[in-house]
Amino acid sequence: MTTGGDGSTEIGSPSESMTLKTTSAGPTLPDPTLSDAPYSEIVLFDSPARVLDFLRKWWFLLGLSIVVPLAAAAVSVGSHVNFGSGDQSLIELSARDVWSTHTPYTGLIGRMSWNHPGPLMYWLLSPAALIAKHSSTPVRVLNVLLLSGALIAAAGLAWSLGRRFFSVIVLSTLLALIGLPAQVIRVVWNPWFPIPFLVLLFVLVARVASGRTRDLIGVLIVGSIMVETHAGTALLVVALAILALAFVVIDSISAQSMPERWRSTLAWIGGSALLLWILPIIGVFKGVGGNLEVLVRYFRDAPDGHLGLRRAITIFAAEYQWRPPWLGGPEPILSEPGFRGFAQIAAPAHGAYLIIPFVALTLGYFAARSGAMKLWRRYILATAAILVVGVLSISRADQPFDYTFAWRVVIAPLSILVPAVPIFARIIERNFDGRRVLTTVVAVGVVVSCLVAAVRLFPKMHSGVQENLLTSQVIGSIARAIDLADVSGEKIAFRNGTASFLGDMVAKGAVNEMDRRGVRVVVPNDEYSDMEYEYNARAYGEWRAGPLSSASAVWYLVDAPDQFTEMESMNGSTMIWRLNPYSASAIFELPISKR
What we know:
- There is one protein chain.
- This protein is α/β, with parallel strands linked by helices.
- Helix 9 packs parallel to helix 11, helix 10 runs antiparallel to helix 15 and helix 13 packs across helix 15.
- The longest helix is centred in the last third of the chain and has 27 residues.
C-alpha cells in the first residue's frame, strides 16, 4: 500500500503489485480506479467493485489514447516527402548551423524584426537537420517525436501523482489536441513548438508541489525551451516557476528544514541555466543578434499598441462559450486583411464566459479541504496562475493573431478538469452509501471520454493531406533544378525580387535547399536599406549577409511578367527554374557583372 501523489491511499501503484488490498479509511473519494475489494484473477463485471478492480489494474493503458494518435502523426508525416518554406525553412537552415562555426545565438526572427530569445529549438532539431540531405521530412518527423515525447513524458510523470491527476492530464491533453490544429504537432514552427511543453511544465510544477523538489531542474529546462523558442510564453513560464519555488519555500518553512539534496539541486539548476542561456547571453552583445533591448521595447511599447486587458478577456472567454474547439466545436477564427495581405484573427466572445473557469476553480479550491485532497489546492493555484497570466500575456500582444497564443486551448480544459476532481470528491463524500457506484460512473466516464477523443484525433493526426502542399511542391521543383544545375560548393548570391507573401516563402525555401545541397549562399547587402539588411542578417544568419561581389553569380527570383521579360532579355542570363511553361515565377542566374 502506498500513498498517492494527491495524498490518498492507493493500491497497485506503479511500484507495487496489483494483488494487494486496502480498506478505505473514511468517506473520501477513492481514486477513480480503486476499490476496497481484493483483486480476483477472474474478472466478472457483475458489480461496481469488479469494474473498479479491472480498471485499477489496466488504468495506465489510458495513456495509449495519447500515444496512438501521436504515433499516427509521426507515421503520416514520415510517409510524405516534404520541402519546407517560409519560417520552417529558416528553422531548418539554422538547425544545420548549430554544429558549424556560425552557431546561432538567438531564435527565429519575428514579425517585428527581432529574434526570439534563444536557439534551443534549433539544437533539438539539429540531428535530423544534419541527416536531411534531400528533403525536410526527417526534420518534420523529429519535430513530431519531440512534441509527442513531451506529452507522453507529461502523462508518465503524472502517473506518479495518482490516477486522478493522471486522468486529468490525459483527458485535458486529448481535449487540447482536439481543439488545436493538427499543425501544432505535424508542422515545424516556433509558435507551435512550446505548446506541448506547457503540459509537461504544468506536470513538473505539480510534482514540485507534491514535494519532489528535484523536479525544479526539469522546470528550468522545459521552461527555457519554451521561452527561448517563443517569447510569448515567457510570462506563463515565469508564473509557474515562481509558484513552484513558493511551494518549496512554504514546505521548507513548515518542516523547519531544507529539502533533501538541496545543494546538489541548486548546483544542477545553476549549471543547467548557464548551459541553456549562455548563447542568448552572448547574443545580447554580439552583432545583429543582440536583440534583448528590442524585445523589451516591443513588450513595453509595441509600435501599433497593445491589445489591452478587455480585448484579451474576450479572446480567452471564447474558449468557454458553447461549444469550444476542445469539445469539438468550430475554431473561433476570423480572417481579416493584415500582415502581408491576410491574417487569422482570434474571434472574441462575451467576457462574461471567463467567469466559468474562475467559478470552477473557486469551488474546487474550497472543496479540496480534506487531508487527502489538500494537495489539489496547489494544482488549482497553478491552474489559476496560468489562466490569469495567460490573459495578461494576450493583453500585451500587438495583434490578435490566433497562433500567437494558441496555448490557451491547453489551459482551458485544465481549468475545468482540475477543480472538477475535488468537487466530485465532495459530492461523493456526501453520498457515502452510493460512492462505489458514483466512482464507477466517473471512472467509466473518463475511459469512454478518452477513447472517444482518441478515435476523433486519429484521422486528424494521420491525415493524408500535407500541410503547405503547394509551397512544398514548388520548393521541391526548385530543389530538383538546383540538383540539375550542379552548383554544390559554389558561392552564389540569392536575391528575392518578389513582393508577395508566397514569394517570400518560396525565397526562404530556395535558400534552404541551396544550403542543403552544399551551395554557399550569400544574401547580398548591396542596395538594401539598413532595416532590410538587418532583417536579412537576422533571418538567414549574419554570416550569410555580404556584398554581392563576394559571389560568383547571382540568382534572381521573380514572379511578375515584366520582371520575367527583363531577366530573359539580359545577356548572359540563364533560367535555372520556372514554375511551369506559362508562369512568370522563375529563377534566373546572372553573372555578377550583369546584375
